[in-house]
Amino acid sequence: MIDQENVPLQEDEQNCMEASSQPRFSQKWLLWNLFLTQVMIGTVAVGLLWMQGRLHWQLFGWGDVSAWLLGVGVGLCIVVVDWALSRFVLPSWVDDGGINQALFHNLPIPVIAVIAFGVAVAEELLFRGALQHWLGVVGTSILFTMIHFRYWRYWGLIIMLFVISSVLGWMVEWSGSLAPAIAAHFTIDFIFGVLIRKGWK
């Protein structure tokens, strides 16, 4: 027998959950915020690399095809693992509050590709390029996880971020260039962006 007194409460709880997952900012605001943030990150990265005397094209490993392919392969594996985990963990562990949906939901795929590439280059220049030189893989991964403060409430996302950052860092250590990290970062962000755009994530 259904307890009628609990029905309004359940509906209120459902409404609260739905409201909490609604984005608080417009897509235009999110895009501008993303653009300015990445410009700042890229500028700081270039400055730090220049101070370290490590600002050179070889850092990117443009000609190392195997490193780029490794990055793409690792990125694809991370996407598959993330998809599998999302089917078995509580939604509250991996819900980002709807921000990614608000950002990508109706963007053209070429724009998603540009965003994913820009974010990958800027963040990898700073974290795996400049900061990892000083902090090592673990220290950089902790910092990388901490700056994604909007994920702090979601344990699943925090753990995934730390693991992904560590994997990217180890690939850079192994290859001696940012190529695999940029390739993996781009692959992850681009595929997730397209999945959100298509309504599949």
From TrEMBL:
Residues in CAAX prenyl protease 2/Lysostaphin resistance protein A-like domain copies: 108-191
Q: What is this protein called?
A: CAAX prenyl protease 2/Lysostaphin resistance protein A-like domain-containing protein
Q: Which GO terms describe its biological process?
A: CAAX-box protein maturation
List where the protein spans the membrane. 30-53, 65-90, 102-121, 127-147, 154-172, 178-196
What broad taxonomic lineage does this protein's source fall under? Bacteria, Bacillati, Bacillota, Bacilli, Bacillales
**In which domain of life is the source organism classified?**
Bacteria
* Organism listed in the record: Desmospora activa DSM 45169
Q: Which UniProt keywords apply?
A: Membrane, Transmembrane, Transmembrane helix
A GO MF term: endopeptidase activity
